[in-house]
Design goal:
0% strand; cell division
């Protein structure tokens, strides 16, 4: 149960974090190795579960044709950004986030607005989040930081960009930098959900369940509808020996959860508490 719960929250936090910019956390080695087992948590994760371990998601025949046509038009196009955007959208539809990010970056280089750099950073962050091989994790982390830094140069208070940059340091040579940056974010905005959620997940990963529970409780107070925070709180309470409280949370979650994989994990948790 432990592995699956942490990975489920990790993926969910990452993919829902984009609601704030339009965040993932990088899991530690054990969770990272098992990511494909629970990647059905979100459609994007489901379709990319074997992207790194076997091969990238295949493009459909229609998508291949779309890309071919769009790339032919690039040679003579006066407005390449419009075509870059269309190409990026085709790759996004196929969950090829690395390829989509390349074109999102081209758009930002040609038109360096904050919004374009944020889009490029978000897309590289998705690629980073779902990367399996360490070399790709490192490469996408660096590209993510580069794009988001362009945003922060123009707007130092873009907290989602800073939160996502922080999470690219979790598996780096400076993992404490992630914690420090997240703390900076919540110092600036104590109610910023993505940073609080990420701090909770990092506490879970390091076995600091009391701290994790405190973070998730903060999120639930801010947003009672945050099912991921409730999931994290329930599991943290189990690890703290507060099984009665955890059972109440899981029973409530069972009534609210629609996603099959998450529901399955909640049922397993309840079964283990009998």
């Amino acid at each position: 149960m432990k592995k699956n719960f942490i990975i489920l929250i990790v993926i969910a936090v990452a993919l829902t974090g984009f609601l704030y910019s339009r965040p993932k956390v990088v899991v530690k080695d054990e969770a990272k190795a098992n990511r494909d087992k629970v990647s059905e948590t979100k459609t994007a994760a489901k379709d990319t579960e074997h992207q790194e371990s076997t091969q990238a998601p295949k493009l459909s025949a229609e998508q291949e044709k779309q890309l071919s046509d769009l790339k032919q038009k690039l040679a003579s196009a006066s407005n390449k950004n419009a075509l870059y955007e269309q190409i990026a959208q085709v790759f996004l539809a196929a969950n090829r986030f690395d390829s989509a990010a390349t074109y999102a970056e081209k758009i930002a280089l040609a038109d360096p607005s904050t919004a374009n750099w944020m889009q490029a950073g978000d897309t590289y962050y998705q690629a980073f989040t779902l990367a399996f091989r360490q070399e790709n994790v490192s490469n996408y982390a660096e590209k993510t930081r580069e794009c988001y830094q362009k945003v922060l140069d123009k707007n130092p208070h873009q907290l989602q960009a800073k939160t996502n940059i922080a999470m690219t340091y979790v598996q780096s040579d400076s993992p404490m930098q992630a914690i420090m940056m997240l703390r900076e974010v919540i110092t600036e905005e104590p109610s910023f959900e993505p940073a609080l959620m990420n701090l909770g997940v990092l506490s879970m990963q390091s076995g600091q369940y009391a701290k994790a529970a405190d973070r998730f409780k903060q999120v639930v107070r801010l947003n009672p509808a945050n099912l991921n925070a409730l999931l994290g709180l329930g599991y943290s309470l189990v690890e703290m020996g507060e099984k009665a409280q955890a059972k109440t949370i899981f029973e409530d979650l069972k009534k609210k959860v629609k996603e099959p994989t998450l529901l399955e994990e909640v049922n397993k948790a309840l079964e283990s508490l009998k």
